[in-house]
Amino acid sequence: MKLLRDNGLTIVLLLLSGVTMGGMLVSGWAVYDNDLVEHGRPQINLLTYGVSGHFLSSLFENWESEFLQMSAYVMLTAYLFQRGSAESKDPDERADPDGDPAGRIPADSPWPVRFGGWVRQAYSYSLGAALGMLFVVTCVLHLKYSAEASNVDAIMHGQAIITIREHLSSSQFWFESFQNWQSEFLSTAVVVVLSIFLRFKGSPESKPVAAPHHETGG
């Protein structure tokens, strides 16, 4: 079926996202209910857990780090190079494939390109901007629900609750953030370097199997 063939990558990734999110929900619910029992609190049902700070804080914490990784990757690869990597442009190729297309715009170009002016300029950086905005939104949601989860935990231990602003300056919030951010930057660096020396036949993220190590893939 043409629809499945043309969109198979997106469909499979979304299905895997849904399955793993479901696994996170159910396993997190079990952990949280055990914690409630240990503190003499009544257990909650799955739906209630799904809108709790414990679950949503972890969910948005992970989404935040992924959007940070992808936005940083898109923006940094526009200006920085790694010779030999399949993830980098060629540092010796200075021609700009995205130079001003005025006067030679194909009829089937995206409408912002055909519109021109500031609209085309904004569209030129729209991918990085969209990923950056998703990072900001999920970071704010992580902060909100992390503060909520922290206050629920504080109540169970007879401690004072805090405001979102106070939680923003807490070591707990920044520990949650940095532990994910560092792994995203490290994993991206590993892919960039490994793609110099290793191959995966058929993947657009890999250079051709016979390509020399010094040949840049981008």
Describe this structure in words.
By secondary structure, the chain is mostly helical. The protein has two domains: 44 residues, no CATH class; 159 residues, no CATH class. It has eight helices and no strands. The longest helix is centred in the N-terminal third of the chain and has 37 residues.
Secondary structure tally: strands: 0
Low-confidence runs of at least 5 consecutive residues: none
Question: Please, what is the average pLDDT?
Answer: 93
Run of helices and strands: HHHHHHHH
Number of helices: 8
How many domains, as an integer?
2
Let me know the largest β-sheet: none
Bin the strand percentage.
Answer: under 5%
DSSP helix fraction: 55-70%
CA gyration radius, whole angstroms: 23 Å
What's the overall geometry? elongated
Distance between the termini: 31 Å
Class by helix and strand content? mainly alpha
Write the layout of secondary structure elements.
Elements: H1 2-38, H2 46-50, H3 53-79, H4 111-115, H5 117-124, H6 126-156, H7 164-168, H8 171-197
Helix pairs in contact: 3-6, 3-8
Features:
218 residues, mainly alpha, 2 domains, 8 helices, elongated
Summarize the entry for a quick read.
By secondary structure, the protein is mainly α. It has eight helices and no strands. Helix 3 runs antiparallel to helix 6 (126-156) and helix 3 crosses helix 8 (171-197).
